[in-house]
Design a protein that fits this description.
228 residues; eight-stranded mixed beta sheet; 46% helix; globular
């Protein structure tokens, strides 16, 4: 298996993990930057849970298809806009996470109420409030501008994008973000949530990273997928 095939394999795994966890539905998509090239791999116009390696398309950063049997997703500019403007981003999950969408519909921003939320997004998450599919670069650039240096942004009533330094990090972060949103939603229903203090965020992020939290979680979700 060459390097590109290995990336394709991991993208398919990420799609299936997120689909099996109810994080990514029939219309989500996952992408990865090809290191050292202005190219991106992502699942084409097929539901993530059904994707195979043959369904992963190779695009340049302008959206031109280089390889692939099927067409890229309509919202590929959402991913490509981030890759163009954020050179630190190596992988992106676009999901329609239920709790995240519910909070955004109520106009409530994501904030950390637990360790997972503190790890993934730390302080308050940007909320993008323009409606519709992100099928053009102009809208994509506006989202990137609102996103700023954060690795997650919520699209109101739509979903989110979660960026990371690897496929594993983006996939796990998307799961943890939804879990954190569910806890925030539950805490909001029960009373006034206790937000994690800003001074604690960096400490928690360092602890999770040093403890190989992403690697452990990726291994767990791969194992869980193999059991289903």
């Amino acid at each position: 298996m060459d390097f590109i095939d290995e990336l394709r394999h991991k993208v398919v795994l990420a799609c299936k993990i997120l689909d099996s966890g109810g994080i990514m539905d029939e219309l989500g998509h996952f992408s990865v930057r090809v290191p050292g090239k202005d190219q991106v791999l992502m699942n084409g116009k097929i539901s993530p849970g059904q994707a195979t390696q043959e369904d992963i398309v190779l695009l340049d950063l302008k959206g031109n298809k280089i390889e692939g049997k099927i067409e890229p997703p309509k919202e590929s500019p959402l991913h490509l806009s981030v890759y163009q403007r954020r050179l630190d981003v190596m992988a992106i999950a676009h999901t329609h996470s239920p709790a995240i969408v519910a909070l955004s519909a109520a106009g409530i921003r994501l904030r950390a109420v637990d360790n997972l939320g503190a790890t993934v997004f730390g302080t308050e998450v940007p909320l993008y409030e323009e409606y519709g599919l992100v099928d053009n670069f102009e809208m994509g650039y506006r989202i990137v501008e609102t996103m700023g240096p954060h690795n997650i942004i919520v699209l109101k009533g739509h979903g989110n994008i979660v960026a990371g330094k690897s496929i594993e990090e983006s996939c796990v972060s998307a799961i943890w973000a939804e879990k954190a949103a569910q806890l925030q939603l539950q805490a909001t229903l029960l009373g006034k949530p206790h937000w994690y203090p800003d001074k604690e965020i960096s400490k928690i992020q360092e602890q999770v990273t040093a403890g190989k939290g992403y690697e452990r979680a990726w291994g767990y979700y791969r194992w869980k997928l193999s059991k289903s």
